[in-house]
Write a structure and sequence with these properties.
The protein has ten helices and four strands; from the N terminus they run E-H-H-E-H-E-H-E-H-H-H-H-H-H. About 50% of the residues lie in helices and about 15% in strands. The chain has a four-stranded parallel sheet.
């Protein structure tokens, strides 16, 4: 059986933290080696070189980027493909709207600490941005990173798939339907 590698290109620490908790167990069953590359912290030429190396070694990769201010995932993907021309469009995941929306999507409704927050009770979390998230958790009086870690500890994949379309798509395309 050939040695299989997966590279996950992520924007930053919050994305890596989320994917390590939610995706890594499934990927580790399918791959011998899984690596994270934080592309937003590197020059475009270095990232292009990294992509060429990944392709040359025959490894798999997934590029995960936030929708941010783009009107839709298609336009965000088009813009990204113009910026990073060597990307395979089939290996790109656009997070609607930002990774915080995925964290919020998995909050169980009966969670004693976060279940009553507005970000936990909305039917679709695709519009949750960093600012909306920070505003909601700021009202709890706790710091951001401990909240993110707490949300990951109690993250419910089924709830997240129901409450966030881009997470549901990611789950089916890149995690084989579940972890």
């Amino acid at each position: 059986m050939p040695y299989r590698r997966l590279f996950l290109f992520v924007e930053g620490d919050d994305d890596e933290r989320f994917l390590r908790q939610v995706g890594l167990p499934a990927w580790e069953r399918a791959y011998d080696d899984v690596r994270f590359v934080k592309f937003s912290q590197q020059k475009k030429q270095k990232v292009e070189g990294y992509l060429r190396s990944v392709k040359a070694m025959g490894a798999d990769y997934v590029w995960i980027e936030d929708l941010d201010r783009n009107p839709c995932a298609s336009s965000a993907k088009e813009l990204l493909l113009r910026r990073q021309s060597s990307l395979d469009p089939a290996r790109v995941q656009i997070v609607k709207a930002e990774i915080e929306s995925w964290y919020c999507a998995g909050i169980p409704g009966d969670d004693p600490d976060y279940g009553t927050l507005r970000i936990a009770t909305c039917a679709e979390t695709g519009e949750v941005t960093k600012e909306v998230f920070d505003d909601a958790i700021g009202r709890t009086g706790t710091l951001r990173i401990p909240v993110l870690l707490a949300l990951l500890e109690r993250f419910d994949v089924e709830t997240a798939a129901r409450r966030n379309g881009s997470f549901r798509y990611f789950l089916s395309k890149f995690l084989g339907g579940g972890t």
